[in-house]
Amino acid sequence: FQRQTLEILQLHNQWLVQFITPGDPASFLDKPPLGIWLLAWLPKLTGVNELTIHLPNVLYYCLLLGLLYWLISKLASKELALNTTLIAATSLALVVYSRTPKLDVPLTIFVALANLAFFAFLQKGKSLWLYLFALSLAGGFLVKSGFGLILPGLTILGLLIADPEARRKLLKTLFSWPAIIALIILLAPIILVVAGQATALGAQFIPYLKSLTIQSKYNTSYLGFGFNYSIILLLLITIFPWTPLLIQALAPSSANAKESHLLPEGEGASSDKGQYPLPLGEGENVLVSRVRAFAAVWFWSNFLFFLFFYKQTDFRTFTVLVPPLAIL
């Protein structure tokens, strides 16, 4: 399917909208175009062959690992960043789907970047992190429509439930100018891309828009309440060969309960610049504990959604869980 789409792009130059059957407007691909663009630029430049079809996701795999190392080094420590990067680099799901022309590695980049940027904003209080979060959300939507918004949204919901200081910080920011700018950054790329597609779709624009939103398979075919026990096995092999360490990391422990807060407690935790400095005597270990606590919220909020509300059990779906599992 992906190869067919890439060949259509190369042969028929259908960049704004991809039609499964060229010349048939009703055969539009029910996905936003960014993911296809990210996979198609190299075949477009050099021709469609086995190497150019598979190479883009290898490049995005390397980019994801670089982003994980950079962000976690800033938020916690270089040791945690290195361990996370090595585990992610060798995890079964990421290795398998970095070698196939599918959208899951680009989606994982945007979802991981959105989650870590939002946490960095809560920790450091700098608006640039909020803007990066918004831009990542837009990228996630333009790769896989609502799925790219649902997963970071669940992490934020988990944060609001789990951490009072995160709630306070978010409510304080909600109606501020940085939040308004972030909303514009989120909506502007989506509106520009979708509006550009309207000219190519003509009368099929409204059906296409519905296929990305209210009629998307992510909120029709795939959603439904139940107990999807099969994803437990998929989860265990997602991070293979690190599954034993995962089981140990997810086991409840009271030893670190005192250091599991995502943010320092209390109104006085923030400085004049809106940052969250460490109390006197705390150091790198506390930063590591906070990032791991955030990764636990990230993982459980997404995993419980898959377990109870998401009926699609394709292994590649769980590639997005590799970053939080690697941190844990």
Describe the structure.
The chain is mostly helical and 328 residues long. 66% of the residues lie in helices and 0% in strands. The chain contains 15 helices and no strands. The chain is globular. The protein starts with a helix and ends with a helix.
What is the helix content?
55-70%
Number of alpha- plus pi-helical segments? 15
Radius of gyration, in angstroms, nearest whole number: 20 Å
Distance between the termini: 35 Å
User: What is the approximate shape?
Assistant: globular
Mean pLDDT: 82
Structural class assignment = mainly alpha
Q: How many β-strands, per DSSP? A: 0
| Strand/helix succession | HHHHHHHHHHHHHHH
| Low-pLDDT runs | 254-259, 267-281
Describe the biggest sheet? Answer: none
Name a few traits of the molecule.
mainly alpha
